[in-house]
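Weekly puzzle thread! Below is a chain. First person to post its structure in token form gets bragging rights.
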Amino acid sequence: MTLDLDAYMAKAIAPGVAQGVTLRLLAQEDLAQVVAAYPEELRWAMTDAQVSQLIHQRFRSRIPAYLAQDSNGAILGASWCLDLARSSIRKIPGLSGVRGYESVSTFLVPEARGKGIAGALKHYSMQQMHEQGFKCVANQIRSDRVASIRMNESLGFKTAAIEDRYCALGLRWTRVHT
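Winning reply:
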């Protein structure tokens, strides 16, 4: 799914954020708490050590991440913003030559879902990245993540391509179609 940030920011009205929820940039002191909050559905078969390594590597690589945090300081969710120049989805038609980023591993802890926090977090991260000169945002969403697809569509995202991944007899291949 993709979205033109210039067009979005020109007409966007920030979604309301639930009482006591703060949106901000990830800091080093947040890393352990983000690792602990990282949901099972994004872990696949990764161990806690592998999740920790992934999140710490993203931080060391200066991949910006934005957090939703409750009034007690607990992490409710996060979203990383990977420059398309470093992303695997550069092959999507229309993204070539555009200064954009991919929204990756966006998550909310289960108890924070359905409260508008994901939309507010996504809007906040898009606003921050637009201020840094990014013109487009893209993301990959599994087709079974219906709530995530609907939230992105409500922000104006459009499906740009569908990627099918296949694996049989130890062979893997991908097909992208628009």
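Puzzle host: Confirmed. Bonus trivia for everyone else. Residues 2-177 form a domain with the Aminopeptidase fold (CATH 3.40.630.30).
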